[in-house]
Amino acid sequence: MFCFQCEQTAGGKGCTKVGVCGKKPDVAGKQDELTGALIGLARAAAGKTPGKLADALTLQGLFATVTNVNFDNARITELIDLVHTEKAALDPQALDFPAAALWTGNEDIVSLRSTLLLGLRGMAAYAWHAHILGKTAADVTAWFYTGLRALGEDHTADEWLTLLMEFGQVNLKCMGLLDEANTSAYGHPVPTKVPALVEKGPFIVITGHDLHDLKQLLEQTEGKGINIYTHGEMLPAHAYPELKKYSQLKGNFGTAWQNQQKEFDNLPAPILFTTNCLMPPKASYADRVFTTDVVGYPEIKHIAAGNDKKDASIIDKALGLFGIGAQEKSGLNKDFTPVINKALELGGWQEDRHFTGINGGTEVMTGFARNAVLGVADKVIDAVKAGHIKHFFLVGGCDGAKPGRNYYTEFVQKTPPDTVILTLACGKYRFNDLSLGDIGGIPRILDMGQCNDAYSAIQVAVALAQAFNCGVNDLPLTLVLSWYEQKAVCILLTLLALGIKNIYIGPSLPAFLSGNVLNILVEKFALTPISTPEQDLQAILSR
Ligand code: FS2
Ligand code: SF4
């Protein structure tokens, strides 16, 4: 096997024997085969209008290969078969891209090709969430095929860079689509305090990014005496009016994904994984883990969409599996009864349990997405003009297990009191329970949401630039990002495509960036690896 797509890759170079994430060689091989088949499907779709099934397969096929999503050989094989059936229907002559060729060839070309592939994988997750809520955009969908076809072609380094920048713009549109999907379905997030207290009695923990799954779970647990707690990237759900209205949505349990094996150990409640990041479940809680949608793990119970029945025809199965007709055919309606029954069977704790965040805080705030922040834009602008706010930092991104990630906690702790920290994604758990106070009523830590809410951060930055009549690069704003998986790759490409410079990135640099490609990014965009919080803060604030 070979895989170097995430930050924890073996030796900082590539996983070759088994994935650090737990991915087995056979699954890695199948995922490569699936990627080659998707390139084949894109080739077959050239010059044609592929149908909804081909679109859905493309999104789910890419999403299934994102880190910590699907470890199930059988499910990946099923996807490959469906892709082949669809490809044959479009053009029986179209050839798959050979899986063995994905990671081989000239080092710089492999690097550029991989960067585009990994970006596409990340964007597929966002497009899929939007698609589930009935939002698609023809140009975004079409670009998946364009990008996949490009992976199977030869390009010069300059052509690859052009493709990457084009991709970054498309991903901005895709994140905008998801923002529209989430806010039109559930309202605009409002600042919300979320306690870390788990009340006695039966409960369910829901993790991942899929708000539609949470909504269905809330509907199905109403009046059943079961409380719901978010975990990981589901935390921002508390801020959406159409989700927070459910009284059984009580609080947040646990922190970021890499702590799950410790946090879920003997948990007297089921855990529902709606997306990444799933780690191999330990025996002490494996019987209470449920996956849904594109997530999968061998022997772990899976909640399928409505018409994903064993005896369904391949097309019906695919329609159900891929949620086509979520609106018109209730294809994505799920029955969470097995999760609910497990919660009742396990019964929860017999007394209320108080938890804390990583720094001892007993509650966190979320819900400072674009609408909430821009709603107080005048106040923010006045505070900047009056010199009360000297600098904004966007400190966010994915979390991970490496010790070097303490950098982000220390960085935030060391920021001067006249600075504001915007944050998003699961990296925020390193510091979101810190009490850093406020500046004239504006909290110093503003949680904008999930990783995809990078869209909100971009909107806020653009609005501030307009207000101050300058470019985003001229704002007193610095991005200090942590990366782990492929959604971070697509977001980074969007930021670069927008021409945003001087981004700090860590805890280590992606293994898939060759020395030459990295040099280009450093020269063109002043992409900067993190050093120490003190040194970086000093450099940023003296600029
Ligand atoms: Fe965190 Fe994992 Fe959000 Fe990433 S929960 S690293 O997939 O997407 O961020
Ligand atoms: Fe290794 Fe990351 Fe790939 Fe898993 S996803 S096999 S940890 S590089």
Strand order of the largest sheet: 5-4-3-6-7-8
Mean pLDDT figure: 94
- As a whole number of angstroms, the C-alpha radius of gyration is 22 Å
**Contiguous helical run count:** 18
Bound molecules: FE-S-O hybrid cluster, iron/sulfur cluster
Number of structural domains? 3
Percentage of residues assigned to helices: 40-55%
In the CATH hierarchy, the architecture of the largest domain is Up-down Bundle
Uncertain spans = 307-316, 323-331
* Global outline: globular
Distance between the termini: 45 Å
Count the E strands. Answer: 18
Helical/strand content category: alpha/beta
Supply the CATH class of the largest domain.
Mainly Alpha
Biggest sheet features: 6 strands, parallel
Strand content range: 5-15%
CATH fold field value of the largest domain: Substrate Binding Domain Of Dnak, Chain:A, Domain 2
